[in-house]
Amino acid sequence: MKKTIASLLLAAALAVPAVAQIPYVPTPENIASREEFADMKLGIFLHWGIYSTFAQGEWYLQNAVPDRNEYAKAADAFYPHRFDAEKWVKAFKDAGAGYVTFTSRHHDGFSMWKSDQSAYNIVDATPYGRDVIAQLADACHAQDMRLHFYYSHIDWGRDDYPMGRTGKNVGKDVTKADYNHYLKFMNAQLTELLTRYGKIGAIWFDGVWDHDQDSVPFDWHLREQYDLIHNLQPACLVGNNHHGSIIPGEDIQIFERDLPGENTTGWVQNGTQVSVSHPLETCTTMNNMWGYKVVDQNYKSVEEILHLLIKTSGMGANLLLNIGPQPNGELPAIALERLKGVGEWMREYGESIYGTTAGDFKPAEGYAATRKGNKQYIHITDNALAGKSIELPVKGKVKLATEFASGAKVAFKQAKDNTLTLTIPEHAPVIDYIIVLQ
Ligand code: GLC
After folding, report:
1. Domains along the sequence of the chain with CATH
2. pLDDT tens string for the chain (438 positions)?
3. pTM for this structure?
4. Contact by Cβ (8 Å): 151, 130
């Protein structure tokens, strides 16, 4: 019995490294930046690197290439002569996005800025020779767009990164694994990113799930990294796509291809709590792949994207919508066309999205609600509801219901327990029919 308790205690100690328990108190600037983040509601995710050259998505090295050194030759062919950071940022701005999350370094280990920590970077290893991140940072700062950096914990190229469950067949020398060495490298890179490119809105980590099948829990020293980031830029938000609950030191909670609280992907860790005190973000792809994939033309329509945005907003979360830029430096025309459509809608109806929090009830099939002050926006997104009545579990007394577009009054009934019955007019909805409750 004693032995069992001792081993249970040991297992618990290993599962939650002591350092993760140190309470984290965000600074006032950090709190302000969380609020700003939560109000923005729409961000653009970009997966761009030398993998784009193969046009097979960002996992191509792990999925198909038996030799990392052969893969690395793509760097010498990466020449994105049509890259125009100002044009990109303008397109995101016109779409109504408030921030861009850019892959500074993905799992293949290639750095998209001039890093002194590794010559495997955009300036030293490509004929293009220009710092992509510097250009993007300048364009973002000039156009008042927040810049976030995706940063991979995994590295399929370096021997010092201790191999997890991916990157096993790319020819790495496992005898050289040395996490302390790798950690120093990452921290030096993060320091570059946070000291050379002005104000950075967030660092978005990805890859700790690579070690989720280890027999002994892998200690990433996350808190050390989070503290480093906050010391360099106190307002910089820390997020980690670990598919679990908030770990002390994190400022936002990330969900991948799922709404907060859902687990359609099966990736969410058991027992994950959706935070009630941190901003939430759901990331998803515009087609099916993150990095540019030539055969994947299965893009969501403008309407589908907006319905996603309405749902995430109805959950009080942001939508981080991904685009995989082409190897020539252009955004796919179809992605640009979708951004344009999103922007047109946002200019007209953005009031019901920006700066809102979750509505009184969770998004349901065909409708969702967002809230701002004493107003609640009821978004009807399913044509099948036109002419029908819906019952909404709102939480307060409704004084007035109007059509967002025309301001015309909408009839409603409210029961003693506040349940609201709304009759959706026959002419509703197009993309989204909005009723404003006061
Ligand atoms: C997954 C993938 C990665 C992608 C990320 C975006 O973690 O490994 O390629 O960058 O999702 O959320």
Report:
1. 9-357 (3.20.20.80), 367-437 (2.60.40.1180)
2. 344 444 444 444 444 444 446 899 999 999 999 999 999 999 999 999 999 999 999 999 999 999 999 999 999 999 999 999 999 999 999 999 999 999 999 999 999 999 999 999 999 999 999 999 999 999 999 999 999 999 999 999 999 999 999 999 999 999 999 999 999 999 999 999 999 999 999 999 999 999 999 999 999 999 999 999 999 999 999 999 999 999 999 999 999 999 999 999 999 999 999 999 999 999 999 999 999 999 999 999 999 999 999 999 999 999 999 999 999 999 999 999 999 999 999 999 999 999 999 999 999 999 999 999 999 999 999 989 999 999 999 999 999 999 999 999 999 999 999 999 999 988 866 788 999 999
3. 0.94
4. no
Q: Is 290 in the pocket of ligand 1 (CB under 6 A)?
A: yes
Q: Helices 85-94 and 132-142, interaxial angle, to 10°?
A: 40
Among 106, 156, 256, 296, which is best to mutate for testing ligand 1, by the most ligand atoms less than 8 A from CB? Answer: 256
Taking alpha carbons only, the member of 11, 109, 30 closest to residue 277 is 30
Tokens in use for 208? 């700790």
156 in ligand 1 pocket by Cβ < 6 Å?
Answer: no
Strands 237-240 and 202-206: parallel
Pocket test for ligand 1, best of 61, 103, 206, 211 (most atoms within 8 A of CB): 206
